[in-house]
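Both lines are given unchanged directly below:

***
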Amino acid sequence: MDRARLSAIAHRWHPVAAPVSDDALARLVERAAPTGRGTALDLGCGSGAWLLAMLAARPGLSGVGVDTSGPALAAARDRAALAGMVGRAVFVQADAAGWRGEPADVVLCIGAAHAFGGTAGALEAARRHLRPGGRVLFGDGFWESGPSERALAGLGAEPGELPDLPGLLAEVGRGGFEPGYAHLSTTAEWDEYEWSWTGALTEWALTEAGAGEREEALDAARTHRRQWLEGYRRELGFLTAVLHHVS
């Protein structure tokens, strides 16, 4: 199966596409979004859940979401239409790392640092697209404990590829940002996210997939479940933070 299509199916039940609850998302959006009129830019927007939540909270905002995944963007456009946001929310299929749009009052980049070669590249891109006085809503992973060999194998990561939490915050500082409000994902949020990911894919495989895709999707769900439960569960953390540009 095409990886982008598989990911879009797996995120049907949890379009936030990060281990963040709806309540936490609402608090983060409230603290990051500018008041009054303005623009938002979501780099690596996926199916648009974060951008659409921000536009719903701030009627004076319009926004652009950028992602390479055609299936995720199709879902984002459907959600925008259902929310009555056609025109306010525009979704563009492009490489977020190469995006050259207009500066925005708030830049979002949640779980998409890999598209920029890592945290430093993602923060540099966010700073480049940010208007003076704007804010960044940024989400990235870190090692909460370990990492053990099992966790590294489950995530497919190399030692040193991800920092611990102090290391991640130090990277934020080196990028010229000061964290304001932040949220650390709980084990319950991680479990909801991972069970939703594997569950949505399993249900699709058993109820919708054609014969040629059924086993492939089931194998992907089983592999992901094993990598999580036997690998990085309780070791991988996720930080979502409102960042202020200070230098």
In short: The two ends are 44 Å apart (CA to CA).
